[in-house]
């Protein structure tokens, strides 16, 4: 089997999706965790409400992982029968991963900001925690759209 530049470019695309989504999620989850820890220090009974807010921006890392897995599976990297992709095919796979890579990074960071603000709501008015979750979840819409576009694009690239 010859390892082509196209294959390398496809693998790079999958790695970008997983890495950038994961980096955005890690930063955001950490930021929300710091804010949540302050609230729980003052009132441990609010742990469950702030935990939900901390979990939300972690999904982009999972979505990026899913795109990388689907891409790697399609090109045969998983299973050991790697396809010899042309440069054009590799570029298509690379481009197919970009919506999730960039969309995942940006949406995770902004969802983290919304979740940190939601932690502030829970600190002062815990009965309004549902609204704070909705604010953070609205950002998730764009991560899901990026995921869907990347899935459609990955499955749309022909591999012989």
Characterise this structure.
This protein has 160 residues and is an all-alpha fold. The protein is built from 5 helices and no strands. The protein is elongated. The mean pLDDT is 95.
How would the blueprint of this fold be written?
Blueprint (H helix, E strand, L loop, with lengths): L4 H38 L4 H9 L3 H16 L12 H38 L4 H28 L4
Helix pairs in contact: 1-2, 1-3, 1-4, 2-4, 2-5, 3-4, 3-5, 4-5
Arithmetic mean of pLDDT: 95
Structural category = mainly alpha
Largest sheet: none
**Estimated share of beta-strand residues:** under 5%
Shape: elongated
> Which parts are unreliable, with pLDDT below 50 for 5 consecutive residues or more?
none
Distance between the termini: 14 Å
Estimate the helix proportion, in percent.
over 70%
- Give me the strand/helix succession: HHHHH
Assembly of the depicted chains = single chain
Radius of gyration: 19 Å
The count of strands amounts to 0
Structure annotation, total helices: 5
């Amino acid at each position: 089997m010859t390892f082509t530049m196209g294959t390398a470019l496809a693998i790079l695309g999958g790695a970008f999706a997983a890495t950038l989504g994961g980096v955005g999620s890690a930063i955001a989850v950490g930021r929300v965790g710091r804010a949540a820890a302050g609230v729980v220090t003052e009132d441990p009974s609010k742990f469950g409400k702030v935990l939900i807010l901390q979990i939300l921006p972690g999904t982009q890392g999972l979505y990026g992982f899913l795109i990388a897995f689907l891409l790697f599976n399609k090109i045969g990297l998983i299973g050991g029968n790697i396809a010899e992709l042309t440069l054009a095919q590799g570029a298509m796979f690379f481009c197919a991963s970009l919506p999730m890579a960039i969309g995942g990074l940006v949406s995770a960071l902004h969802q983290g900001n919304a979740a940190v603000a939601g932690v502030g709501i829970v600190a002062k008015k815990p009965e309004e925690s549902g609204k704070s979750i909705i604010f953070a979840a609205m950002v998730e819409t764009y991560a899901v759209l990026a995921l869907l576009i990347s899935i459609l694009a990955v499955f749309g690239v022909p591999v012989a």
